[in-house]
Amino acid sequence: MIYDLIIISLAIIYAILIIWLLIGWMRHPFFKPGCFYINKKISVVIPARNEEDNICECLEALYKQEYPDHNYEVIVVDDHSSDETSGKVIDFIKRNNAGNFKLLTLSPGSSKFFGKKHALNRGINESKFDFIITTDADCTMGRNWLKTVGTYCYLYKPEMLIMPVAITQGKKFFEKIQVLEFLSLAGVTGATAGWKNHMLCNGANLGFNKKSFFKVGGYNDNLKYASGDDVFLLHKIKKKFPKKIHYLKNRDVVVSTQSLKSVSDFFNQRKRWFSKSKAFKDKLTVIIGLIVGVFNIMLVFSIFYLFFTGIKLWLLGWGLKIVIDFFFLLVISFFFQKQKLLLLYFPASLLYPLYVFITFILGIKGKFSWKERYYY
């Protein structure tokens, strides 16, 4: 009886949270530039480690931007790659005579300065423009990406600009449900922005003023974490400039990244994300994380509870979650034009609580690998 009451109470709290997020997403306006302003000077920084298979496609997308060459630069920072990443970048620059593209490398053999944050630091420090955009080596973007960003920055002058990221849809079921799960994260990012209380962002598509970056100390106080360059920076800028963080809701600025090919890679990535959560101090992030995490874990335990007791009241909690999540994802999927993926929603929704539970258990252990390095 007590367990049933807990499940139902959590289900109601969860439903209120998702409705709040849904309203937040819907109240945030689309950005529709009447005309474009292309004078904003932008530095794009790309940290890269062992990305020989992806970096050229990323650089090609950046090379084709409908933006004046003299108003943007692309800086690739090689983080001790053991493959031909640097060679690919050098060859691309020479082949296309791309004078506004350049390659930097972290100190060879250095054990002190390695990892994504150090690579970003190097690129930001050596950038020549005041507005920075970070993206990843496995990402691609449309031709109007910089033009839309430059116009928005010209009009609204944000200190930080959060932009949407989507996963490129693969053919396998496992790849497709990753896209679906990522839609929920993208939705939460835009939804909390709609309430002017930003919670998430993604370093694959993130802009900020260089002066603001240095004012808040950049990544200096969280270098021990393998990831989190994006969210840690968001929370610091949020504290310093709470009204100057913007979310750019426009399809032309969506950046696409690749899905993970194996289950082990998927959970390894989630462990990496989980590893930084213990350092979060932002109240909204902690509260939402607890509600979502505890509710999903309780749903997993409720399966065993049903098996031993035969009590079925918990189905109301599970059913409420499935329904409310569907409507949230339905709205988000229209923005990202991924409506067809909702055909996979029901099986994915049954797996999701188990996925959260497994991630939590694996995350407690703490060990994970990333880019051929191990972290604890």
Summary keywords:
376 residues; alpha/beta; Spore Coat Polysaccharide Biosynthesis Protein SpsA, Chain A; seven-stranded mixed β-sheet; three-stranded mixed β-sheet; 12% strand; globular
Task: Describe the structure concisely.
The protein is of the alpha/beta class. The protein has 12 helices and 12 strands. It has a 7-stranded mixed sheet, sandwiched between helices. Strands 5-10-7 form a 3-stranded mixed sheet.
Outline the structure in words.
This protein is an alpha/beta fold. Helix content is 52%, strand content 12%. It has helices at residues 2-27, 55-63, 85-96, 116-125, 145-156, 173-194, 210-215, 229-240, 263-277, 283-309, 314-336, 345-365; strands at residues 42-48, 72-78, 101-105, 131-134, 140-141, 160-162, 165-167, 206-209, 245-247, 255-257, 368-370, 373-375. The strands form three sheets. A seven-stranded mixed sheet has the order 3-2-1-4-8-6-9, sandwiched between helices. A three-stranded mixed sheet has the order 5-10-7. It is globular, with a radius of gyration of 21 Å. The two termini are 40 Å apart. The model has no long low-confidence stretch (mean pLDDT 87).
Give the overall silhouette: globular
Largest sheet: 7 strands, mixed
Distance between the termini: 40 Å
Q: How is the largest sheet built, in terms of strand order? A: 3-2-1-4-8-6-9
CATH homologous superfamily caption of one domain: Spore Coat Polysaccharide Biosynthesis Protein SpsA, Chain A
Counting DSSP E segments of at least 2 residues, the number of strands comes to: 12
* CATH architecture assignment of one domain: Alpha-Beta Complex
CATH class of one domain: Alpha Beta
CATH topology description of one domain = Spore Coat Polysaccharide Biosynthesis Protein SpsA, Chain A
Mean pLDDT: 87
Low-confidence regions: none
Order of helices and strands: HEHEHEHEEHEEHEHHEEHHHHEE
Number of helix segments? 12
Structural class: alpha/beta
